[in-house]
Design brief:
Its EC number is 3.4.11.2. The protein has 26 helices and 34 strands. Bound molecules: O-methyl-L-tyrosine (0A1) and zinc ion (ZN).
Length: about 900
């Protein structure tokens, strides 16, 4: 909990560690409430450190000391001092290395924050990133201290038959009183944030993988007995990831064993601990009847992400936590490439950009904006952000675009060769890219230090006489906290030209001819001239979303419809449809605000009619083309967010399209409606997506036949994608059987926690009128539990982050509710509490009344004592 003034940590204050820990011998006498930790640290002074002080400061929190000795000699009370966050040893041997022995007790059961060693159900597990290891024992808990770990676990054999840690199992045996022990050794030096242990009654699903050099790796997934039938997809995903990293990056796995453990209680998605990943069950367990197609894809993506960390994160790690994007931005980029290769690259890119623009752009435009390499933090756990992860991945993607796939690979090869076994910085990554490609990326580096989303404005002039198109690009970036002035960035702008008939036009630029080029926008304003154009072309700009910027390029509805029909760039084709819909919706919002009657623009209906007549081969992509921009995406485009007008205008478009094109939606629904449960090929998934997109439109009709359609699909579905799509339709309508459907679904799935999470989330995000009352009722439901992060996210998270209409109710009940829950979580699980506060951070974007109501709740939170650093930092920065 918070001291009087929480300290800020600054990047500029970084200094190398004064001491090093070459190796560690840990042993654990495991017990739910009283685990004894025995630690032997082989330490020495760091020759790289300039500091000559003879004191040693170790981090440690919530630990009960039993004994401490240096080189076998117990320390006297006056030799050291313990504070709530550290231990200071006044004098340690300087000349040669020394051995520090510590014994301490910890209480896993009392650990509801889920960092350090904690209980998940009846299983003991650890989470050490970022600074959880200090809740296990006193240590130099910083990523630039890398040590070899040997770990022995002792525990009751009945309660904890499986005992796991990093590396290879080297010995095991029996003890008296029904206890047993297992020893593990990790041959690779690592920072303590990658340490892990797991103990429990677990079943093992085993397989193997033969690496490119012919080594056989044992693969083991550990789950509770009732989940053994939901591991095959995760296992296949792991093998796919291992092969992909060999083929794409030339990177091979290094240990002989790779273990994954799935736990019910986890603050994040998963964790890349060396050789022993710990996963949120959400990203492991899948069976066709319990997991949706999107769940299947996310599982493969997260399994890939953690696996790829073995190189980008573990073999080469971060020097300090300000460099977090070094491993996260890079690894997200790698997992995006992987999923793109495994599924539809077009769909994956659209999904990623959509998430970036709706969520990261909001972060970048608000009080919590920070560069992908932050310069200061109070609580590092608050910096596992969309900016560090998703914008970080965009920055790596821009390097890939600028250097080309081959050049990027050369840069990666050099980075891994230079820094294997080291803890390094983002600067080292760019240096390797430069050196391997003989280029200079001085200006590009600004992406690491500058926060905010740049705006790129466009002017174009076509001269029929000279047959030239002049394109004037301007860039600017709004001020962000502590960064009032911004310098121009190096923005790669991918471009194509379309002839008036929709065919690609040749690009003659700088004396060269191409069908697509990448412009280097480096100045605040720059003019690009294209030659030999007989007619004015239509410009397709920022193809593939080649840079994380806001493009300010006014276009007519006709031009957008043209691009939606003809653009050969799958991203920009989809984008044209989104812009078209957004433009139509914004016009309707104005009509609503001025009490004018609403009419749907005929061009929009025509565009959708054409889309529904199309027979494309990527049906998931077709489904995306039919999806209207999200309410939160639209909100991000408004100066003052009008939650209600956005909702009603968007609903009006959806309902009118459903009425006008009912036959088309029904026809496409029928074409693709069939039972392909258990099939996960692109075709089967695409058919489900397209069909369910149609269902969602038809559901707007609120008619006997639309009710029958949803109900029939709900009852007949034999896969979770179709079942949950149908239930969502029922929940988001006045369906007469809503209560029954919800009840039946609950009955059917009450023993599958991940499915019940969907049940909570669906109800919490419904736009139907009585949602807030339902949410309050669900808080009292026996299956709701504040100690389970997935459940909290499913109910409180979904309501506050995926239900703008009801969360932002003008009477302030949503805000009050959220603050109540934040304060309840503050003492229980600060990380989850602070994630929930972000629902209030965007208060400046709303009208005066809502601003006041949101601020009131933020003030209430900040005034609470005691307040965790996590919540304090987010709430106070939101108000600043
Ligand atoms: N490194 C993990 C994410 C992670 C971060 C922090 C955690 O606890 C505070 C847990 C997991 C990843 O990127 O997958
Ligand atoms: Zn990661």
């Amino acid at each position: 909990m918070r001291d009087a003034t929480p300290q800020t940590v600054f990047l500029k204050d970084y200094t190398p560690p004064e001491y090093l820990i070459d190796s560690v011998e840990l042993s654990f006498d495991l017990d739910e409430q009283r685990t004894l930790v025995t630690s032997r640290l082989h330490m020495r002074r760091n020759p790289q450190s300039a500091n000559q002080a003879v004191t040693l400061t170790l981090a440690g929190e919530e630990l009960e000391l039993v004994s401490i000795a240096i080189d076998g000699k117990p320390l006297a009370a006056g030799d050291f001092a313990i504070s709530p966050e550290s231990m200071l040893i006044h004098r340690v041997p300087q000349e040669q290395g020394f051995v520090l022995d510590i014994q301490n007790y910890i209480n896993p059961k009392a650990n509801t924050a889920l960092e350090g060693l904690y209980l998940s159900g009846s299983m003991l597990c650890t989470q050490c990133e970022a600074q959880g290891f200090r809740k296990i024992t006193w240590f130099l808990d910083r990523p630039d201290v890398m040590s070899r770990f040997k770990t022995t676990l002792r525990a009751d054999k009945t309660d904890y038959p499986v005992l796991l840690s990093n590396g290879n199992k080297i010995a095991s045996g029996e003890l008296a009183d029904g206890r047993h022990w297992v020893s593990w050794e990790d041959p690779f030096a690592k920072p303590c944030y990658l340490f892990a242990l797991v103990a429990g009654q677990l079943e093992c699903v085993a397989d193997s993988f033969t690496t490119m050099s012919g080594r056989q790796i044992a693969l083991e997934i550990f789950v509770e007995g009732h989940n053994v039938d939901k591991c095959s997809h995760a296992m296949q995903s792991l093998k796919n990831a291992m092969r992909w990293d060999e083929e794409t990056y030339g990177l091979e796995y290094d240990l002989d064993l790779y273990m994954i453990v799935a736990v019910d209680h986890f603050n994040m998605g998963a964790m890349e601990n060396k050789g022993l990943n710990v996963f949120n069950t959400k990203f492991v367990l899948a069976r066709p009847d319990t997991a949706t197609d999107s769940d299947y894809e996310h599982i493969e993506g997260v399994i890939g992400h953690e696996y790829f960390h073995n190189w980008s994160g573990n073999r080469v790690t971060c020097r300090d936590w300000f460099q977090l994007s070094l491993k996260e931005g890079f690894t997200v980029f790698r997992d995006q490439q992987f999923t793109g290769d495994r599924t539809s690259a077009a769909v994956k890119r659209i999904e990623d950009v959509n998430a970036l623009r709706t969520r990261q752009f909001a972060e970048d435009a608000g009080p919590l904006a920070h560069p992908i390499r932050p310069e200061a933090y109070i609580e590092i756990n608050n910096f596992y952000t969309l900016t560090v992860y998703e914008k970080g991945a965009e920055v790596v993607r821009m390097l890939h675009t600028l250097l080309g796939a081959k050049g990027f690979r050369k840069g990666c090869d050099l980075y891994f060769a230079r820094h294997d076994g080291q803890a390094v910085t983002c600067e080292d990554f760019i240096n390797a890219m430069e050196a391997a490609n003989g280029v200079e990326l001085t200006q590009f580096r600004r992406w690491y230090s500058q926060a905010g989303t740049p705006v790129v404005g466009v002017d174009q002039h076509f001269d029929a006489k000279t047959q030239q198109l002049r394109l004037i690009l301007r860039q600017s970036c709004p001020a962000t906290p502590n960064q009032p002035e911004k310098a121009p960035l190096h923005v790669p702008v991918k471009l194509g030209l379309l002839a008036p008939d929709g065919s690609p036009a040749s690009i003659v630029f700088d004396g060269k001819t191409a069908t697509e080029i990448t412009l280097d926008l480096t100045e605040s304003e720059q003019t690009f001239v294209f030659d030999k154009l007989a007619e004015a072309p239509v410009v397709s700009l920022l193809r593939g979303f080649s840079a994380p910027v806001n493009l300010d390029m006014p276009r007519s509805l006709e031009e957008l419809a043209f691009l939606l029909r003809h653009d050969s760039d799958t991203f920009n084709r989809w984008e044209a449809g989104q812009q078209l819909a957004a433009k139509v919706i914004f016009a309707l919002i104005e009509d609503l605000q001025n009490q004018r009657p609403l009419h749907l623009n005929a061009l929009m209906a025509k565009a959708f009619h054409d889309l529904l007549a199309e027979e494309g081969d990527d049906l998931s992509y077709q489904a995306l083309l039919l999806t209207l921009p999200d309410e939160s995406y639209l909100a991000g485009q408004m100066r003052v967010i009008d939650v209600e007008a956005i909702h009603h205008a968007r609903e009006f478009v959806k309902t009118t399209l459903a009425h006008d094109l009912r036959d088309d939606f029904e026809r496409v629904y029928r074409i693709h409606h069939r039972d392909e449960s258990g099939k996960f090929g692109a075709d089967a998934i695409g058919r489900r997506r397209l069909k369910n997109a149609c269902l969602s439109y038809l559901n707007q009709l609120e008619s006997a036949s639309s009710y029958a359609l949803a109900k029939a699909q709900f009852e007949q579905a034999r896969n979770m994608t179709d079942q949950v799509a149908a239930l969502s339709a029922v929940v988001n309508s006045h369906h007469p059987d809503k209560a029954d459907c919800l009840q039946n679904f609950y009955q059917q799935w009450q023993h599958e926690a991940l499915v019940i999470d969907k049940w909570f989330a669906l109800q919490a995000s419904s736009h139907m009128p009585n949602t807030f009352a339902t949410v309050q009722e669900l808080m009292r439901h026996p299956a709701f539990d504040m100690h389970t992060p997935n459940r909290v996210r499913a109910l409180i998270g979904a309501f506050s982050q995926a239900n703008p209409l009801h969360f932002h109710a003008i009477n302030g009940e949503g805000y009050r509710f959220l603050a109540d829950q934040v304060l309840a979580l503050n003492t229980l699980n600060p990380q989850i509490a602070s994630r929930m506060v972000t629902g209030l951070a965007q208060w400046r974007r709303y009208d005066g009344k809502r601003q006041e109501l949101m601020k009131q709740q933020l003030h209430r939170i900040v005034a609470t004592e005691p307040l965790s650093k996590d919540v304090y930092e987010i709430a106070s920065k939101s108000l600043a």
